[in-house]
């Protein structure tokens, strides 16, 4: 006699299918990030080719060209503007997405949120330990221990979208959440370990525009009578001021993007002048700024950061023998999946959480391999670790590029076979929508 699963069984899923609305939202994000990921790859390849061409001096002259106002600590090279300024837009969206997941998404329940958070922590800790083990005793090389801790959302999502058209949405949600939490941990590492000197006055002044920003973001209708789509006219200048103060304080300015993202309301409240149960300003801002981030900010940063003079085949092989390069490659390609899968297994073994019936452990391994694509944030941490022009930084870039390609290839080989299997299952099983427009699979118990 068949037994009926308990009503709350879905809450114990290690990685669940999630709600239908969440699946639709994740699908929309994936489509947008796919384009950005492809642009990122093209920009990175273009930078590497240009940096190793007869016109290489022109590339480095553009990257190192300084512009800005010195008294405000804003006379920076174009490469630094891309790393400090444009990436703040990317991290603003990271903040929006993370808050959306934990406030109104399927991860608003602790039982569901703890899994990707724990997996992300494992995916940060194990690669860092592997890098340290390989470079132990070399003080200069040890500065790059955090390079292999991050996952590139745009790059990984682009690969997943190309190879995984029939993979369960639960895997996509898991990858996106994992990458967002992963980047948040990387940001915390940057703030704590890569801030050499803190200027207290600018840091204190940073709090003022952020506080005003938070109040106006929650009450913009009451104060100004503005529609949500026009609120950014007021909030954007405050965000720029906050970014400037944080940059002057010595803390990496991209963190301002995350802080401001967390300050934006996810749900519309009565205080803002709208109903209590509608989409908030975060959704408006996400639609407005995601194309700017994916289509411009991240690709430009990749173009400025990925250019490394390899020095031909001899220079490439020389870089591959550097413990810095070896540590990054091993940590990203092996350390990431080991950390993510091991942590996820431990959670399934010692808690009540279980793997969703629609998934297999081989799927988790494939996604964890994909998480080894550490590009955008890894390049940023490499520059913070060693500085532009340092040989260690150049070798770190080689390691990041090689590791990202290897991780993408290995994940593609595994997930393509899984994608074919799920495509076959879709053909064998009819998953029709009811009159309410929601597929039956999202209305059954997990």
From TrEMBL:
Example of a GO biological process term: regulation of pH
Protein's name according to its UniProt entry: Na(+)/H(+) antiporter NhaA
Record-linked InterPro entries: Na/H_antiporter_dom_sf (IPR023171), NhaA (IPR004670)
Record carries keyword NADP: no
Provenance organism: Mycetocola manganoxydans
A cellular-component GO term for this protein: plasma membrane
Main location: membrane
Matches recorded under HAMAP family: NhaA (MF_01844)
Entry keywords, A to Z: Antiport, Cell membrane, Ion transport, Membrane, Sodium, Sodium transport, Transmembrane, Transmembrane helix, Transport
